[in-house]
Amino acid sequence: MGPERTAEERAEEKERHAMALRGIVARLDGELGHHFTRDTIEHYVDDSYDRLSASSRVLTHIPAFVERFARQRLRALARSSGIIEGHPVHVLFVCDRNDGASQMAAALFQAAVGDRGIAHSGGARPAAALLDDAVYALQEVGLDLVGEFPKPVTPEIEAAADVVVTIGDHDDVPVVEGRRYVAWRMPPVDPSVPLAYRHLREDLHERVASLVAEVVPPRTVRAFDRELAALETELTAMGDTVIAMLETLAGAHDDAPAVALEAVVASDDTVDGAYLRIEQATIDLIARRQPVAGDLRRIVSVLGAALHLERIADGAVEVATLLGEVLELPEGMDDRRRQMAALVVDLTTTALQSLTDRDPEAARSVAAIDRSLDALQAETLEALLVADVRATGLRGVLLADRIARTLERAGDHAVDIAEDAHFLATGEWQEFRA
């Protein structure tokens, strides 16, 4: 450990970091400017720098620590002052130097509660860095303290806490009315004892589990399931609209196609709106609920299916638009167009049903339908190569080819939905297109 820096040396160091600190203020102003004035944000950034630099020996990375610390303090201030209402349980873990036990307890608590709680830690006399043994002990159980740093207990952090846990013989925490205080009397860790921090980890794990049972509301799985079910309902409605568009293409009559084709184009707005709602809802659900792997696959499969449905709908709109432009298709092409559209209907319906039913066999069955679609598209191309251009003109031939290729691509997107459904059901990825 190097010698203490003088006030002049600390001022020079702070000046070297001035540009970085201005950047931190600008970012926090963008995040929290609707809660606080820029002067308030500048004050907390400046004060956080002074508090952390007082105990740090190496200042190379201190701006990153300052930004995180200032953000924590400002959010805590917003909570304790009533600016933000409705929040998970906040727990503050305090030990003397915030380099071991309190950091470990906070990490164990956060891992246990997920989005049901928020953990902070601090120390009366923060150390310069975390203890390596404490970091390693958590890494052994899959928890990472990389990026954490010793920090002091500040008034706004404590005021925002619902529960304050003091660890060891540390008692000099100012009492804030309305807060619950818990003292964990634990002997100091002797680093010379083999596995000392592993034993500390296990002790803290048991204490944290008891604390969670006392102060954190149980996870509301039903609320999560309701939100996810609502997403799937939206996807089903989106799929129904897309299938109706495709069925129109498969069944539009030559004598009166205009109204039907206009309906296909008009339906695209409905599909786009559903996709945007599903996209935003999935992002919100992942951010708020932090789902486990199985539920995450379920959420992502909904988003993937919505994306492919949106592209199938775009293909339907393109076909409808092309049909509105061409006066006459080459001989036999209109029948092939209907057959191809009907196959895309079958593909999309089967893929969506396999997703709903978690049915891998149904998902795999799309491969045979897709081969029929590909074969029909190939036959169409062969027929167009020998078509009588004089009857419909070159434009009619080219538009017929484009219609066939667009329907074939729409079928590919339906196959993509089936592949997602197979992965959701089995956990194994399998491609169904050659």
Structural class: mainly alpha
N to C succession of SSEs? HHHHEHEHHEEHHHHHHHH
Mean pLDDT: 85
Q: What's the count of strands?
A: 4
The best one-word shape is: elongated
* Helical content band: 55-70%
The gist of it:
The protein has helices at residues 7-16, 18-32, 38-55, 62-80, 101-113, 132-139, 155-160, 196-215, 221-251, 258-289, 293-325, 333-357, 360-364, 366-385, 389-426, and strands at 89-95, 117-123, 163-167, 180-184.
Report what the structure shows.
The protein is mainly alpha-helical and about 425 residues long. It contains 15 helices and four strands. It is elongated and about 95 Å long. It starts with 6 loop residues before the first helix and ends in an 8-residue tail after the last helix. About 40% of the residues are buried. The model has no long low-confidence stretch (mean pLDDT about 85).
